[in-house]
Amino acid sequence: MLLQRNQIRIHLPFAAIALALVAGGVIWYVIDSRAAGQWLGGGSTVGLVCGIVAGAIIAFEMLLWPRKALRRLRLFPTKYWLAAHLWLGLASFPLAVVHSGFHLGGYLPATFMTVFSLTIFSGVYGWIVQNVLPKWLLRNLPAETIYSQIDHVAGLATDDAKRLLIASCGQRRTAIEQVQLDMEDMDMSLTQTIVIGAVRQAGKGRTSGRTLQTKQAHDSRDDRDRLWTAYDNIEQFLLHGSSITSPVTDRREATIWFNRLRKDCGDPSQDIIDSLEQLCDQRRQFDTQRVVHKWLHAWLPLHIGLSISVSILLVVHVWTALKYW
Amino acid sequence: MNPLQNPTGKQRSQRIQLDYFRRRTGLDRWRSVCIVVGFVAAAAYAGYLFYFVPNSTRSMATAIASNEPGRNLLEHHFNTGALSSPHASFENQCELCHTDFTPMDANAPSEWFPLIGVDADVSRKHLEDACQKCHQVGHHHRSKMTAQFAARDQNCSVCHRAHQGRDFELTKIARRECLYCHRDLTPVANSNPAVRNSVAAFTKSTHGEFTSLQQGDSGKIRFSHALHMMPGQVAADAKGGMTLSRLSPSERPRYVREGQTNSDLVELDCSSCHESVGQSVIDQLGTQLKSVDLELLGRSMEPIQFEKHCEACHAISPGVMPSTADPLRLPHGVPSSAMRTQIASMIDGNRATGDSRHRRDDSKTTPSPGLGQTGDRESGHDNVAHDASGIDWRATDEEIAAAEQSVRNQCMTCHDEESISEQAILASASDTAATLIPTRWLRRGLYDHAVHRQIDCRYCHAAAYPVSDSLTQSALPTDTHEEVMIAGIESCEGCHRAADTPTPSSLQRSGDESDRLISIPELIGNMPTWASDECILCHRYHSPMDVHRPNESITSINKGTP
């Protein structure tokens, strides 16, 4: 959930509640501990209250799951629910530390506290990256697409490149047959505008969206062999990205490689080469997006898994702590 | 779409698959893995704890002895810490101290538990009973406490914190535990406390003077420490000082000092009469002394015994005894009726053995064994004894009465009339009779002479010493038995102070003439001048007199108290 100025009204009440809980718990704990002459444990009045509050918060945090499952019921606006999830979740950690009396205890409470700490850490990490990486993606990866569609869009881009070449300079000379020569003429006559991709563009105000990019086909049959050879060199890269070793995998080497290609080709082919270079750049953005996407989203499954463990360990901890209080 | 075919407008706009959100990606699989692993791992651990741990072996003694931490499952999983070594064998038997779902935590909100049907009193009593099985100690004026503090008193874990690790000392009670109540006894006691209402630290202003010292000396023995510390036990200008030659040969080695001859005056020091409990045992062991024997050295001093500490100079004599090498002595603490018989027997016995003479015998000759003085037939006694030559040597009533008076006069040197009455002497034979010299002075605290043995006696008992060795008879007190010659709390608080306070200037004072050339550092054996000021150093909590009454609850003790 974004934490920015225009959302301060959403966050502020829950942040205030969290701060009040933590400050109240800590101050009460320090006062009682000073009176007792020792750091009180979870069995003391203040330790017990802090533990109950922290446990209740953990239970509330886990309600995010059923709430999502029942989102059709529109029980509570998601933005408020998530703000409460974030701030109360943050408050639960210092309350749990106070509850523990700064002792990890046996394996069970130590495991519980460790898993709980990891859960909080993963959540904080997720909150941070969600406030940072999307903005970076928006700024640096205009060709960004839906993560699961990267391979599909990469395939489309490969097809676009091939269609652009066919439209501009015809089929490969070695594969030409009479029928294809006829089609070549047809392609040359019919395919004047080729889609070569889509980029995200921000409109006025808050509107934004993706715009198809097209390219006019020019007659480049003089450079047919060179362009088809170039395509052969970059096709696997366009399909599979940086996992493939090619002249265009590295951005700097790609620039040199395309510059050399431009020198070897005539003027009509320059637009085609620009388009190919643009498609290669798009593919590199997809690769970057794939990495960033993992950083951006891989924490959440971890957070969920840890949360489930925390919930189970919380029940066990409550049972054993009350039994041997 | 065939790349050779020109795409339609719709195809151009569909750069993504419309059902993309239904397609599982690597992240979806990662989420499933995390959920399953998180659930299974935690559930497996919970199952392990609930099923395997309770059924684990209870051979804790074996586990501890063989240092196999892996077998100590309860300790590792549930315990907040290991039990101390003396209780380590109970590590897996939580139920010995704990009552299920009933808190014993002293800081728990016990007053709210009845609202949910939990009685913390049950848990505290369970723990107390468990402790009492081995530790037969009484409570701490519990009947005089309000319910809240009586509950703390009943809860052994308030002071004796378990689960603090193997090396934790359960009896090392911090001062804060004492101050919890003693900082202000007003809310603690049911009525006005008999002790100081507030004690915050170990200083004269916050702790007060030792109560025992304020009560004066209850002893009834007339005695002057200063006089006895003078050479010959007389003033410098007095004659007739006690010389070594006047001591019996068997007593003499005990009092003779290096370089002294029999004509020298007896010089006493503290150890002449005061010795630590167990010191005599250690002395007797000699070369057989072992390090463990030193543990015999007690904290307090042996009581003063007439036969051991006084008789060498103050032997009870009927006045007719000769100065033989080791004369028979009249016993101490004997009723007058028995004393009369003892006196008569002694006189007759001495005359019978030729060790004494009749009161009118001035022949200066050595009497023959078995003979006394020539007969006293004019005395008219019918029951007189005669020897072979017909001489009457039995003591007469007048002689015995005169000897009795002489003995009585000797008794009155140290005792008063009341103490030597027939009834008082008979009563003193009882085991429960009060001693004429208190055996312990600081009754509310514990002073350990053994650990302070490097400190010169003068540091705490300066009043027992004469101001000077040249004191004249008029300046020397003859009886100071009502004066308590123990320094007050100020002699302790110099060293026993808070750790963050500097050494007081009184401990750094150099000696001068008034200090008899001994500086304070020398008096305290040049030892470090800081020691702990924890209450537990001197005070003990549990009362041996208050016998724990099983099945007695706090609420029943303090019913109706505020």
Structural overview:
By secondary structure, chain A is mostly helical. Chain A has two domains: 5-141 and 297-323, no CATH class; 147-296, no CATH class. Helices cover 70% and strands 6% of the residues of chain A. Chain A has eleven helices and two strands. In chain A, strand 1 (193-202) and strand 2 form a beta hairpin. In chain A, helix 2 (45-62) runs antiparallel to helix 11 and helix 6 packs across helix 7 (178-190). The mean pLDDT of chain A is 83. Among the domains of chain B are: 97-201 and 542-557, no CATH class; 336-428, no CATH class. Chain B is elongated and about 160 Å long. Chain B has helices at 9-13, 26-52, 60-65, 73-77, 120-132, 147-154, 175-182, 204-207, 211-214, 225-228, 252-255, 270-273, 279-285, 306-310, 336-352, 397-414, 422-428, 457-460, 490-493, 520-523, 554-557. In chain B, 29% of the residues lie in helices and 0% in strands. Chain B is mostly helical and 562 residues long. Chains A and B meet through helix 2, helix 5, helix 6, helix 7 and helix 10 of A and helix 2, helix 4 and helix 7 of B.
Question: What's a concise summary of this model?
Answer:
The complex is a heterodimer of chains A (about 325) and B (about 550). Chain A is mainly α and about 325 residues long.
